[in-house]
Amino acid sequence: MTTATLARTPFHPWSAERGARFVDFAGWEMPMSYGSIIDEHHACRTGAAFFDVSHMGRLRITGRHARKFLDRVCTRLILGMERGQVRYSLVCNERGGVRDDVLVYCYDEDDYMMVVNASNRLKIMEWFRAIKERENLTFSMEDITASTAMAAIQGPKVMELVGTFSREIPTLKRYRFAEKSLMVAKLTVSRTGYTGEDGVELVMGSTVAKFVLPMLLREKDGVAGAVRACGLGSRDSLRTEASMPLYGHEITEEIDPLSAGLGFAVKLDKGAADEREGRFIGQDALEAVAKAGPKHRLVGFEVEGRRAARQGMGIHRGGEHVGHVTSGCLSPTLDKVIAMGYVPSELSAEGTEFEIDLGKARTAARIVKMPFYNPVRAK
Amino acid sequence: MPSPANCRYSESHEWFRQEPDGSVTMGITQHAADALTDITFVEMKPAGTAVTAGGTVGEVESVKTSSEIYVPCAATVSAVNDAAHTDPSLLNSDPFGKGWLVRLASCDLSKAQGLMDAATYDQKNGH
Predict the structure, then answer these.
(1) Is B58 domain-assigned?
(2) pLDDT single digits (tens) A253-274
(3) CATH number at residue B77
(4) H-assigned helices in chain B
(5) In a domain, B3, yes or no
(6) Whole-angstrom Cα distance, residue A328 to residue B26?
């Protein structure tokens, strides 16, 4: 399973020492889990969990046209972002299909960081260079993925922990970040995450990562175990419960963000109020989708039985194949099978019943509201 | 941990143990359980089912994937571990003990093709 060609993150030795089982993820050797995936899932829902997310691509985009360029490729408005603000956005192709979903960090009006999916990093960089050339824009794009590390610390007890070394961070609102110094290390700490829980994501220099991590996790203070090391396995079930899309599953080059229920991240009237905003690539196509209404919609299902519905399984109604599953799992928190998938818009009302083809058998499924699990509502 | 020496092992990570009464107990190895990750579902064919050599006695499903369970020789299922159906995590915590899957009658392991002893199996799977 381990090959020499896989990239390793600065946290890799730390994870290996803790018995991580590694998996090849987009060319990176990443922890799948350290023990039981289900236990790691519960640790994040009830306490605090650490995830190595250094494989995510990080691009620093700076210079005269940095903002203008980002408004050109992002479906969300970048103009007017304040220093210390983070925005979730889609990057679309001309047809309105999703090229990637990203986070944009604003350090200054001409200084941004974009966090992209590991599997899309090279594609996105190549495409951005082509746009820069074609549209004659002046900015620099630096790939800082290898020179930095990224950690996600997530769970209801994280803010309490973070509060022991920073008074400022627990006061940050969601989707805000601060730059902090910890000893000699400079950290970008954002109140963001991909689990549905409260928590932070941290970007730091790759050379200091191995010193910073034990400090962050308070390992020397004898409270080791307060933060549980978790892998990509639980990250996937956590984001599924929180109904967060995963690139390659809920969103692809062939799926537009409106069908995926991500309309909140699409500024359809970009450029209408202020021409400095410009128009984003894919805006024409998405305006047309919005006008006609999406033909298919992403919906959430509760599935009968204990067998997971998985990506690609057919969704049937009245003997007809009407859609397909994009993600699914036996939800550790809800203790039932949940799934997401696309169905025709006219069949997307809550409560509508379907059958999912599990391969050898079919099982009943019913559309329910998403997110499946909302920690804020549950408390 | 080395796999128990009193079992025989298949390429597809099942273990088989000859019982004193002539029956054969089977399950999946620790290596298989670790690779599958948390097992969430077990469905074995009911007692009385006849299975051909190379056929399946059922399926187990984990957080990551699902996997068929094969028998190396023609046999009849004589008993099914209900506890593993109720609590599939037994396959992770005790795959050679409480996490056994089925018991087979009229199963002649000496006629089975390609079974390995524990040392060969462990060596092959990097233990």
Answers:
(1) yes
(2) 999 999 999 999 999 999 999 9
(3) 2.40.50.100
(4) 30-36, 82-86, 90-93, 118-124
(5) no
(6) 30
Instruction: Among A21, A38, A306, select the one facing B41 at the smallest CB separation.
Output: A306
Rounded Cα–Cα distance for residues A368 and A357 (Å): 18
Beta-bridge partner residues of A329:
A338
For residue A38, give the chain B residue with the closest CA: B38
Q: Which of residues 214-243 of A touch B (CB under 8 A)?
A: 233, 237
Q: Is A36 on the interface with B (CB under 8 A)?
A: yes
Q: Containing H/E element for A126? A: helix A121-134
Orientation angle between helical segments A66-73 and A121-134, nearest 10 degrees:
120
The range of the structural domain enclosing residue B35 comes to: 8-105
Nearest to A37 among B37, B61, B66 (CB): B37
Asked if residue B29 belongs to a domain, the reply is: yes
Which residues of chain A are under the pLDDT cut of 50?
1, 379
pLDDT in tens, A352-377: 999 999 998 999 999 999 999 998 65
Given a contact cutoff of 8 angstroms between Cβ atoms, the answer to whether A100 and A92 are in contact is no
The beta-carbon neighbor of B40 closest among A21, A33, A330 is: A330
**Interface A:B, Cβ pairs < 8 A:** 37
Determine the distance in angstroms separating the CA of B63 from the nearest CA of chain A, rounded to an integer: 7
3-state secondary structure of B119: helix
B41: tokens are 């579902």
What's the pTM? 0.94
Interface contact flag, A38 B66, Cβ < 8 Å: no
Among B59, B63, B66, the residue with its CB nearest the CB of A37 is B63
Question: What is the ipTM metric for this complex?
Answer: 0.86
Q: From CA A112, how far away is CA A98, in angstroms rounded?
A: 21
Q: Is A175 helix (H, G, I), strand (E, B) or coil?
A: coil
Contact A37 B61 (CB under 8 A): no
Residue A129 backbone phi and psi in degrees, to 5: -65, -40
CA A196 to CA B96: how far, in whole Å?
37
Residue B20 lies in a domain: yes
A55 neighbors A142 (Cβ within 8 angstroms): no
Total domain count, chain B: 1
Residue with tokens 């691509």: A57
Q: Around Cβ A52, how many Cβ atoms within 10 Å?
A: 27
Outline where DSSP puts E strands in chain A: 21-25, 28-33, 49-52, 57-62, 85-92, 98-108, 111-116, 140-143, 148-154, 177-182, 185-190, 199-205, 228-230, 296-303, 314-317, 320-331, 336-344, 353-357, 362-368
Q: List residues of B whose CB lies inside 8 A of any A CB.
A: 34, 37-38, 40-41, 59, 61, 63-64, 66, 89, 92
